[in-house]
Design goal:
With about 425 residues, this protein is α+β, with helices and mostly antiparallel strands. The protein is built from eleven helices and 20 strands. Strands 1, 2, 14, 15, 18 and 19 form a six-stranded antiparallel β-sheet that branches. Strands 4, 5, 6, 7, 8 and 9 form a six-stranded antiparallel β-sheet that branches. The protein has a six-stranded mixed β-sheet with strand order 11-12-13-16-17-20, with helices on both faces. A hairpin with a 2-residue loop joins β6 and β7.
Length: about 425
């Protein structure tokens, strides 16, 4: 699948799965050994000249290649990649970054829905100890088959400590060619000794959507990623659930890191009324633009629904949750979302690499700024707040889903006896 100038809303790249910078040491008292030619001492900076970035970079690269006498000078490509990463890092934006050809390929694989790896979704941020935490293994994937569990904390990957790594760097180490083995050292709650797992990588199909019927005729759809097929899969899932007698819907966006902006708008349009605002987009070179549901695709009048979110629901997930909350078409339940109100544009480069540049900011329909920053927590605050403790998470308990079911059962008049107490219509 070709990716060209795609607008990306992913808050993090999970593993269902970008450079590093080494800090130098500044030693003001360090003196050169031996002497330098007098002509060097006589040089003084000219100053005042306008800097030409491209010309200056090429000049320094030429000097380096011609004059440097150290061993193992990196290739021009590696030097250029390092320079680009430094350039983008200076923007102080964690979402504006460079992707080398391997990283770009991984991103395309995620968007296509298949990759070679172990099949596990990772927390977007390391734990307080610096470990990489497993949100969930992909059902039937290599990680689940090897016994990896939700809540496991990866301390080492092939012997390399994960402390100091971000999730993207961890993903790069864990993924690899099908048939090869990756060794993980895992810290598991309630166990003193580390759990060692040797997992054979293989092709993994990234799950996009899961759905089923719950008690009382409540349908349940869990969307794990916003890509080019997500909206169509939701449509098919709704059709099947309605055929089975669905009277209400839980739409679960917990742990969903986002994806494509167009997908977020399409899916939001299913949960807000025609003519209602979905999201505001602010761009540097253009006036604010609002996106409105202009298509007759609204599902909410058929049955009540809730949106489930948590602190790892990010970007595209937050567009949907914000649209529903501001338009008051459904009930948002769970924990305050991640807080990423920025849009990235993906721009491929000639050599197979690419850059992701933050090109826009989005606001909820009521112009609410949900972006996390140094001055605000950000995120969409649910209509009904329900937290999940670490103990509940590890036991597989789900108070957020339980609250959503209670809320919808009350809406449709369902009780444990199966009687309808409000006279709400029943599907034949």
């Amino acid at each position: 699948m070709a990716l060209h100038r795609k607008h990306i809303l992913s808050g993090f790249l999970g593993l269902v799965v970008t450079g590093s910078f080494a800090a130098g040491v500044f030693e003001p008292e360090l003196k050169a050994q031996g002497s330098l030619p007098d002509t060097i001492f006589s040089l003084r900076p000219e100053g005042g000249k306008e800097l030409d970035p491209a010309r200056t970079y090429n000049k320094v690269l030429d000097i380096l290649n011609e004059k440097y006498v150290g061993d193992n000078l990196p290739s021009a490509r590696k030097l250029t990649y390092t320079a680009i990463r430094g350039l983008l890092n200076a923007a102080d934006d964690p979402y504006t970054r460079f992707l080398d050809p391997d990283e770009f390929r991984q991103l395309k694989e995620e968007n296509d829905g298949e990759f070679d790896g172990i099949g596990a979704t990772l927390e977007p941020q390391p734990t307080k100890e610096g470990y990489i935490k497993v949100l969930r293994p992909v059902p039937g994937g290599p990680a689940e088959t090897a016994g990896v569990k939700r809540g496991d904390m990866i301390t080492k990957i092939d012997g390399k400590p994960t402390t100091g790594l971000d999730v993207d760097e961890a993903v790069k180490l864990i993924r690899g060619k099908a048939g090869t083995i990756v060794k993980l050292s895992i810290k598991r709650s309630g166990q003193a000794a580390l759990v060692e797992k040797a997992i054979t990588r293989r092709p993994v199909e990234l799950p996009i959507l899961e759905y089923r019927m719950l008690e009382g005729g409540v349908g349940y759809i869990s969307l794990l990623q916003f890509n080019e097929v997500s909206d169509r899969k939701i449509e098919l899932a709704v059709r099947d659930l309605e055929a089975k007698g669905m009277k209400a819907l839980v739409f679960d966006l917990r742990g969903n890191p986002g994806g494509l902006l167009t997908s977020a708008i399409d899916i939001s349009s299913r949960f807000v009324k025609p003519g209602s605002d979905v999201v505001w987009i602010e761009e540097a070179q253009e006036s604010d633009r609002k996106k409105t549901n202009g298509r007759v695709r609204y599902l909410g009048e058929r049955w009540p629904f809730t949106i489930l979110v948590n602190r790892t629901s990010a970007s595209a997930s937050e567009i949907v949750a914000g649209a529903v909350k501001d338009n008051k078409t459904g009930t948002v339940i769970g924990a305050t979302t991640f807080g990423k109100g920025l849009v990235q544009t993906l721009m491929p480069l000639d050599d197979g690499s690419a850059v992701l540049i933050t090109t826009a900011k989005y606001l909820t329909p009521s112009r609410g700024d949900i972006n996390r920053s140094k001055t605000q927590r950000g995120g969409v605050v649910p209509d009904i707040e329900v937290e999940v403790t670490e103990g509940q998470f590890l036991k597989g308990e789900d108070p957020q889903l339980k609250k959503a079911l209670e809320h919808l059962h009350q809406k449709i008049g369902y009780t444990k006896t199966g009687k309808n107490t409000t006279g709400a219509p029943k599907n034949p």
